[in-house]
Amino acid sequence: MIEDKYRWNERYKTLPPPQNPSDLLLRYIDRIKGKDVLDIAAGLGRHSRILAENGCKVDAIEYSDVAIESLRKIIGVNAIEMDLENGCSLEKSYDAILCFNYLNRNLYDFMINHIKDNGIILFETFVFDEENECAPKNPDFLLRKNELLKVFGSLHIIEYKESNVIKQNGQKALMASMAAIKK
After folding, report:
1. What is the pTM of this model?
2. How high is the pLDDT of residue 38?
3. Which terms are listed as keywords in the entry (predicted)?
C-alpha cells in the first residue's frame, strides 16, 4: 500500500535505524559466507551490508524509496523494490533467507519453498506481550508465542528463543529468534 511506503520513507528519514547487525546473524554468518542470500524487509541495509562484505550475493527487498536508495549504494547488494503485502514474486532459491523486525505471514510458505537444501533461515521479530514498550501495536505484526516453531517445524530448527530485549531506544520488547536449516 502506498501509505506504507510514505510512512516508512518518513521513518527512515527521521528515526535513527539500528546500526549493528543482529546477534543472531553474527552467530551464523560463517554458515552463509559466499552464498546467495535474500534479506526480506532489508531496511537501510545493516544486514545486507555485512553479508556483502563477507562475499555474499544479496537480494535485498524493500518498499521504501529511502531504503532502496541506501541499499543501492552497497556494493554486492541487489536492491529490489517490492510491496510484500501480497507475497513475494521472486522465483530464485537461496542459501540463506533473513527476516528481521518484520512479520508478514503470507511469506512463510515462500520462505520454506525458496530455501535451498542445507540453506538457513534466520528470523527475528516481535512477539505479542502485554509488557512490550516498543513493539508494533497491530497484532497482525506480532508473533504469537512459539509461532515460528509451529510454522517452520518441517525444517531442522537449530536455535529458537523468545526473550525480552532492550531495543536501541531503551525500551523493552519480547522478541523471537530462530535459526532453521532445510534438510
Report:
1. 0.91
2. 98
3. Methyltransferase, Transferase
